[in-house]
Amino acid sequence: MDSLTHALFASIVFTLIGHPELVPFAALGAVCPDVDIFFQRFSDRDPRLYIFTHGGITHSVAGALITSALAALLGLIVATALGHGVVIPLAFAAAAAGVLTHIGLDFLAYPGIPLLFPATDRKYTLGIAGGPTVYLLVASLVYGAYLLTGRAVLGQPWLYMGFFVLIIAMNATLKAYVTTKAGGRAIPGFSPLKWLIVGETPASYRVNGYHLLRGPAPAVEFAKLDDVSPEEAGRLMTLPEVKRVRYHSYIVTAARNGGSVVFSDPLREKGYLWYPPYFKRFEVPEKVQAPAQA
User: For residues 150 and 142, what is the distance between their CA atoms, to the nearest angstrom?
Assistant: First the structure.
């Protein structure tokens, strides 16, 4: 989700629990994980740093501890400069809570976040929202404008929060319905009427669209391995460039192209999904020798 929605959500929570003095720390904590947007210029150049990207290390539990400490420190510096006294443990607690609300909200959406990094870079998600959630951003912009013009206050956010809860509940209900009707993994699109269904067999992925009014579209099959052995694919998966493709992808296939092996995410390459828009494929040249697995 967007940074404005994260900041508003954390600010509302601390206002409602009776600690408006901690709102700046909670809001800072809530937006801090998105500092990883600035890491991408480095991870784009070095595939070994693939976890240092948007939705990466700062969205893990371990990363949350670091970012909350930095958010609290920044807040304390500003508060001290302005002459406001704040109890340090409360500042850190508020910043940590803000970071956790950020992670909790991002956990709702595809493509997920690496909660348990560095133990694993696997992404986790409830999958009831699709990447950037435009209608929540619009609602946050409208509510933010009302706050700035004095026509709304953080202590009475009922219309905004009601819309927020309605959207989340609607998406969760629709996901359960689509999963029951279509089977497979249901991935939401920008429109609540459109979903993508991904099924899986030992040898292939089955992909088809599902429209709530028109039903399922014809399925398309993508072979997991095309003229590539499981052993070879496993060895090549240790390459940082391939790890980076896998990290950003929903599904990954491997196909031989002459003497090379191409790893790709057909969902993003074929236009079924656009987010994340980068690192959709990598072609391993024949001359590259993959390191043996430990």
Answer: 12
